[in-house]
Design brief:
The structure holds two protein chains of two kinds. By secondary structure, chain A is an alpha+beta fold. In chain A, the strands form three sheets. Chain A has a six-stranded mixed β-barrel. Chain A has a six-stranded mixed beta barrel with strand order 15-16-21-18-20-19. Chain A folds into five domains: 69 residues, no CATH class; 190 residues, no CATH class; 192 residues, no CATH class; 161 residues, no CATH class; 200 residues, no CATH class. A three-stranded antiparallel β-sheet of chain B has the order 1-3-2. By secondary structure, chain B is an alpha+beta fold. In chain B, 29% of the residues are buried. The termini of chain B are far apart. In chain B, strand 2 and strand 3 form a beta hairpin. Helices cover 55% and strands 15% of the residues of chain B. Chain B has one domain: Arc Repressor Mutant, subunit A, CATH 1.10.10. In chain B, helix 1 crosses helix 2. The chains are: A alpha+beta, B alpha+beta.
Chain lengths: 891, 110
C-alpha cells in the first residue's frame, strides 16, 4: 500500500525523473544486448540493429511500462485534458461556436429543468405528502368539483373513518389592523383545528391553535405569517402573548409560522392568493347552524390513515355523502364527495405543459449535438494525418479514442459551466415573468437535482457528439493516411446530414413565424385603446372598516357614513397639488375584479324561467367618467345631484345600448336590479376593455355611489394628475389618514402599470417563443455551417482540379452556395407548411393578426435565408480560396 | 506474432522474476538471462514484457531498485527482493507446486 502511494506520488509529480530513469534503464538494456552480440563476434552496427529488432521498439517498451504504472489513468487523463485545451485553443473559432451552442442548449435545458424540478419533481414540502388529499363537494350530474359548506365539512369529519385528520380553511376573511398610525388591510385565513398539524407545520415561535380555541367566543387568537411578524413586530422574539387590534377587537398572538411555509395550491384556489398575513381559528359552532349548509366557502384537506388507500377513502366518503343526501335533501341532494390527492390537485394542468416544454428544449439539445458532431467530423477529417502519426508512434487506438472523447468532454464541460452561469442569471428573471397560474413558483431554485441534471447532461452530451469522431478515427489506418495524404474516409451519410439541416431550417422557420405572429399581435394589442386614457392616473384600494359598513341594510340605498367619508376624502384629495380630478369606483378595468348583475327592462315581456338579462355592474362616484376620460356619448354622466335623496339613475355603455336597444334611444328607459327599484337611463358612455386589451368590451351599467343598493366596502380611488402620478402617493396616504386613520390604503399603482401588467402573460409567452426561435435559428445556422464545412473539406481536391482546369473563384463559390441554397429552400418550404399549421393552433392566442400573415411569413423567411447565407458564406469562401497547386501537391 | 512464451499463465512471469532475484540483485538484462538459465532456456522473456513486469512488481512493493555499476562498468538499475517479496515468492511457489502436482496427476489419470 505504502509502496503504491510512493509510486503514485513519483509517477504524478516527479514524472520527469521517472521518465528519465526509464529511458536510461531501457537504453542500457539495449546497449547491453548489443554489446553481448559484439562479444559473440557480430559487427557493432549490425549488433545494434539486431538488438533493436529484438527489443521491439524503444518507445513502445517504454510506453508499456508507463501503462502499468499506478496512477497512470489519472496521469493520462490530465495529459489528455491539457492536450485537449491546447488543441481547442489553437482552433478558437471552432471551439467558440461549439461552446456557445452548448451554453445556449444546456442553459435552456437546465433553466426549463429548474422550473420542472421546482414545480413537478420536488415532493410537496410536507411530511408524507402521499397521504394528503383534498376533499371537494362534487355534483353527481356533471362531476364538477366545488368548495365545501361548513356544516358538510363538520359532518364529513364526524362520520368518516379513513382519515387521520381532516381540516378546513376559509380563505376569505380579511382584517383591518388598527393601532399605531395608519390602519392596514391584512389577508386572513380561518382554519379548523388540526390544520397546521395535518400539514406537519411546526411554528417558528409559539404554538398551534388549541382545540378549545376552535369554538365561537374563544377564537380571538392569531397565528402570524413570518413576513407579517417581521413587518409588524420587527422579528421580535417575545411576540407571543402580544395583542393585535383586528376589526375593532383584540386578538392574542399565539404563534408565528416558519419562513418557508407555503400552502400548496393552484392559483384558482383562494382567489389567486395563497399568501395569508394572519390566521385565526375557524370556530365552527358545534353542531353547526342550518344556514352553514347553504354557502360553500371552505377548502378541505385530509390526511389518510396509514395503510388506507385512496379507493377505500373514496368508498368511505361515498357512504357519508349518501347519509347527508338523505338527511338534508334541500341542500345536499345530488351532492357527492370527491377525494383528490393533493399533489394531483396542485399539478394537474401544468404537468403536460411543462413536460412538453422540457421535451422541446431536449430536442433542441439533440439537434445541437448533431450539429456539433458534424463540426467535429469536419475537424476530424483534417486531423486524420495527426492521428495516423500518433498511432504509428505507438499510441494505442483506445488512447486515441480517449483523447477524442476528452476533447468533446472538455468542450461539453465548459459549455455546461457557462450554461449554468446562464441559468443563474436567467432563472430569477424567468421566475419573475412566470405566468401567475403556475403553482409552486416559490420552490423553483437551482438545487442539487438541477446541478446533477446539468452535469449528467453535459457529460452525456460530450460523449454523444464525441462518439462520431471516435468512430471515424477507428477507420484510420496509418499506412493509407500517411501515404496518400488522407482522403481515405468515405463521405457516407451525407444525405442524412442534409436531411437534418432541412429539418432544422424548417423548425427554425416555424418558431420564427410563431414569434413574428405573437410579436405583431402584442404590438397590435398595445395599440388598442382601452376606452379610457391610461396616462396620468394613480389608483389605490381603500378598505372600509366594519363600523362604516355595518350600519346599512341591503336595498336601503342610504349609507350616510360612507357618503360623508367619501365626500370628505374627495375634498381633501382635490387640494393635493397636481391632482386634477378624483373619483371612486368599485371595479377598475384590468384589475381582475368584476361583478355582473341580472336586470329587467321596463315594458318588456318577462324572460322565461332561468333566463336573465345580465350586464356588468359598475358602481362609480361622480367624476369617474371625467377622471378616466371615458367619453359620454349620449345624455349625461353623473353629477353631485345624483345621491340617495334624488331620483335613481343609471348610465350604460355603448355595447349595452346596442345589445338591448339596438338603433333605439335608450335614454329615459328604465331598468331595475334585484332591489325592485326602477332606475332611469340618463346616459350612454364609451366601451371600456375591462378584462383586458385583447377581449371584447362587454355590456356595462354604471350606478352612482350614492344610489347603490348594497355596500361597497372596498372602493378604489382614482386620481388624474397633472404631474407624474406616482409622485402624489405620499400626499394621498396622508390625506386618507387625516380623514380617517382607520381606513387602510393599499394596492397603489398607476393605471399605466395596470395596463402594462394586463399584457404580461402575452408578453411572457412571446418572449419564451422568441427565445426558442433564436435558439433554433442559431442551431440551424451552426448546423448548416458544419455540414458545408465538412463537404468543402471533403472536396478540396476536386475544387483544386476544377480551378486548375479553369473554374473561377466565383464559380466555386456558386457551387457551395448553391448547395446551401438547395438545402435552405427545401427547409423553408417545409417550414412554411409547418408555420401555417402552427398558426392555426395559436390563432386563439393572437390578437389583430391573421394566422396566415403574408408579411410575417415573408419577413421571417428572408431573415432565415439571410442568416443561412451568412453561415454558408464562410465555408464557401474557404472553398473558393483553395490554391489548386497546393491541393494537388497535397495528394 | 504469437509465441508460446506470450501465453504464459497469468502470474508465471511474476513468479519467475521473483525466483530469479531470490539469490542476488540483478539488472533487467541479468534478470532476463537468469530466467533463461533457470528454465533451461524454455522461457525467453522479451524486454516488452520484462520491464512492465519489473515496474509493476516494484510498485507492488515486492521489489526495490537502485542504480549501480555492472561488471562492465555500465550504469544500470538493479532489482532486489524486499521482505514482502520474499514472502510472496514463498506463497506463490507453494501454490504453483500444488497446481503442478495436481495438473500432473490429472493428466496422468486414465
Amino acid at each position: 500500500m505504502v509502496s503504491h502511494l510512493r509510486a503514485f506520488w513519483r509517477n504524478i509529480f516527479k514524472r520527469e525523473n521517472a521518465n528519465e530513469d526509464l529511458d536510461e534503464e531501457v537504453r542500457g538494456y539495449l546497449e547491453m544486448t548489443a554489446a553481448e552480440k559484439v562479444r559473440c563476434g557480430m559487427a557493432p552496427e549490425l549488433a545494434l540493429r539486431e538488438a533493436r529488432r529484438e527489443l521491439g521498439g524503444l518507445e513502445q517498451v517504454k510506453q508499456r511500462v508507463r501503462d502499468v504504472r499506478t496512477g497512470v489513468s489519472m496521469d493520462t487523463v490530465m495529459q489528455d485534458v491539457r492536450f485537449a485545451f491546447r488543441t481547442l485553443s489553437r482552433n478558437l473559432a471552432f471551439s467558440s461556436v461549439v461552446v456557445l451552442t452548448l451554453t445556449l442548449a444546456i442553459g435552456a435545458n437546465t433553466a426549463i429543468f429548474t422550473i420542472v424540478n421546482g414545480v413537478l419533481l420536488k415532493p410537496l414540502p410536507y411530511p408524507e405528502p402521499d397521504r394528503m388529499l383534498m376533499l371537494w363537494e362534487s355534483s353527481l350530474t356533471d362531476r364538477n368539483l366545488g368548495t365545501v359548506a361548513p356544516a358538510n365539512f363538520y359532518d364529513w369529519r364526524e362520520q368518516s373513518h379513513s382519515f387521520e385528520k381532516m381540516a378546513a380553511i376559509d380563505p376569505y376573511p380579511d382584517f383591518i389592523l388598527n393601532g399605531a398610525g395608519q390602519a392596514r388591510r391584512m389577508a386572513g385565513a380561518a382554519v379548523s383545528q388540526d390544520f397546521f398539524s395535518l400539514l406537519g407545520v411546526h411554528m417558528a415561535l409559539g404554538r398551534d391553535f388549541l382545540p378549545e380555541e376552535d369554538h365561537p367566543g374563544s377564537n380571538h387568537v392569531v397565528v402570524l405569517s413570518f413576513s407579517t411578524w417581521e413587518s409588524l413586530f420587527g422579528g421580535r422574539s417575545n411576540v407571543v402573548g402580544s395583542l393585535l387590534r383586528l376589526n375593532d377587537a383584540d386578538y392574542t398572538v399565539v404563534g408565528v409560522l416558519p419562513r418557508n411555509f407555503s400552502l400548496a395550491s393552484k392559483a384558482s384556489d383562494y382567489q389567486s392568493r395563497n399568501r395569508f398575513d394572519l390566521w385565526t381559528p375557524l370556530a365552527l359552532p358545534s353542531p353547526p347552524e342550518a344556514w352553514q349548509r347553504g354557502s360553500h366557502p371552505l377548502c378541505v384537506f385530509a390526511r389518510l390513515k396509514p395503510g388506507v388507500s385512496l379507493l377505500q377513502a373514496q368508498a368511505d366518503l361515498e357512504q357519508v355523502a349518501g347519509n347527508l343526501q338523505r338527511l338534508y335533501p334541500s341542500d345536499d341532494k345530488g351532492r357527492g364527495i370527491t377525494a383528490v390527492p393533493l399533489a394531483e390537485h396542485v399539478l394537474t394542468g401544468v404537468r403536460v405543459a411543462l413536460l412538453t416544454l422540457l421535451g422541446t428544449v431536449g430536442m433542441v439539445l439533440l439537434l445541437a449535438c448533431a450539429n456539433i458532431a458534424n463540426l467535429m467530423l469536419t475537424r476530424g477529417a483534417s486531423r486524420q494525418k495527426e492521428i495516423a502519426v500518433r498511432i504509428s508512434l505507438g499510441a494505442s487506438r483506445s488512447r486515441i479514442a480517449r483523447q477524442l472523447i476528452t476533447e468533446s468532454l472538455v468542450l461539453a464541460v465548459i459549455g455546461g459551466l457557462m450554461g449554468l452561469v446562464l441559468v443563474f442569471v436567467a432563472v430569477p428573471i424567468l421566475i419573475h415573468h412566470l405566468p401567475a397560474d403556475l403553482p409552486r413558483t416559490s420552490e423553483i431554485m437551482v438545487d442539487w437535482r438541477v446541478l446533477t441534471f446539468t452535469s449528467l447532461l453535459s457529460v452525456s452530451t460530450g460523449i454523444v457528439f464525441g462518439l462520431l469522431p471516435f468512430l471515424q478515427s477507428r477507420r484510420i489506418t496509418p499506412n493509407d493516411c500517411l501515404k496518400q495524404g488522407g482522403r481515405g474516409i468515405a463521405t457516407s451519410q451525407f444525405g442524412l446530414r442534409s436531411a437534418l439541416i432541412v429539418g432544422q431550417v424548417a423548425v427554425a422557420l416555424v418558431l420564427l413565424t410563431g414569434t413574428g405572429l405573437m410579436t405583431k399581435s402584442l404590438w397590435e394589442l398595445t395599440r388598442v385603446s382601452p376606452g379610457f386614457q391610461t396616462e396620468s392616473i394613480l389608483t389605490a384600494r381603500l378598505s372600509l372598516p366594519p363600523n362604516y359598513t355595518n350600519a346599512n341594510v341591503f336595498g336601503t340605498g342610504k349609507h350616510p357614513r360612507i357618503s360623508l367619508f367619501q365626500q370628505a376624502l374627495l375634498d381633501r384629495v382635490k387640494r393635493i397639488p397636481g391632482v386634477q380630478s378624483v373619483a371612486f369606483a368599485s371595479y377598475l378595468p384590468m384589475t381582475g375584479v368584476d361583478n355582473s348583475w341580472a336586470f329587467y327592462i321596463e315594458g318588456r315581456p318577462p324572460r322565461p324561467q332561468g333566463v336573465f338579462d345580465v350586464a356588468n355592474y359598475r358602481p362609480v362616484s361622480t367624476g369617474y367618467f371625467d377622471t378616466m376620460r371615458v367619453p359620454v356619448l349620449r345624455g349625461r354622466g353623473f353629477d353631485p345631484g345624483d345621491n340617495e335623496n334624488t331620483a335613481l339613475v343609471v348610465a350604460i355603455n355603448a355595447s349595452m345600448a346596442h345589445t338591448w336597444w339596438n338603433q333605439q334611444n335608450p335614454i329615459g328607459q328604465q331598468v331595475r336590479f334585484g332591489d325592485d327599484k326602477w332606475r332611469t337611463i340618463v346616459g350612454v358612455v364609451g366601451d371600456v376593455h375591462h378584462e383586458g386589451l385583447g377581449t371584447k368590451p362587454e355590456p356595462e351599467m354604471y350606478v352612482p355611489y350614492g344610489q347603490v343598493p348594497n355596500v361597497e366596502a372596498r372602493p378604489m380611488i382614482v386620481l388624474r394628475t397633472s404631474i407624474e402620478p406616482a409622485s402624489v402617493t405620499r400626499d394621498l396616504r396622508s390625506a386618507v389618514s387625516e380623514v380617517d386613520a382607520n381606513v387602510p390604503l393599499d394596492q397603489i399603482e398607476t393605471m399605466t402599470q395596470i395596463v402594462y401588467g394586463s399584457v404580461a402573460e402575452s408578453r411572457f409567452r412571446t418572449s419564451i417563443v422568441a427565445m426558442f426561435a433564436l435558439l433554433a435559428l442559431f442551431v440551424a445556422a451552426v448546423g448548416l455551417y458544419g455540414v458545408l464545412s465538412y463537404a468543402v473539406s471533403q472536396r478540396t481536391r476536386e475544387f483544386g482540379i476544377r480551378m486548375a482546369v479553369g473554374a473561377t473563384r466565383g464559380a466555386i463559390l456558386r457551387v457551395v452556395l448553391g448547395k446551401a441554397a438547395k438545402l435552405v429552400s427545401i427547409g423553408i418550404c417545409l417550414g412554411l407548411v409547418g408555420a401555417v399549421l402552427l398558426a392555426r393552433v395559436i390563432a386563439s392566442l393572437l390578437y389583430g393578426v391573421e394566422p396566415f400573415d403574408v408579411a410575417t411569413l415573408a419577413s421571417v423567411s428572408t431573415l432565415l435565408a439571410a442568416v443561412a447565407l451568412l453561415a454558408s458564406f464562410l465555408p464557401a469562401r474557404r472553398a473558393s480560396r483553395v490554391n489548386p497547386m497546393d491541393s494537388l501537391r497535397y495528394e | 506474432m504469437a509465441s508460446p512464451q506470450s501465453h504464459l499463465l497469468q502470474g508465471t512471469l511474476d513468479l519467475l522474476i521473483l525466483k530469479s532475484l531470490a539469490l542476488d540483485e540483478l539488472h533487467g538484462m541479468g534478470t532476463s538471462r537468469r530466467i533463461g538459465q533457470i528454465t533451461n532456456s524454455a522461457f525467453e522473456v522479451k524486454a516488452g514484457s520484462l520491464f512492465p513486469a519489473l515496474h509493476r512488481l516494484e510498485e507492488a512493493g515486492w521489489l526495490t531498485s537502485s542504480w549501480g555499476e555492472t561488471e562492465t562498468n555500465r550504469r544500470a538499475k538493479f532489482y532486489r527482493l524486499t521482505k514482502t517479496g520474499r514472502r510472496q515468492l514463498q506463497t506463490e511457489s507453494d501454490r504453483w507446486e500444488r497446481i503442478s502436482i495436481a495438473m500432473a496427476s490429472a493428466l496422468r489419470a486414465t
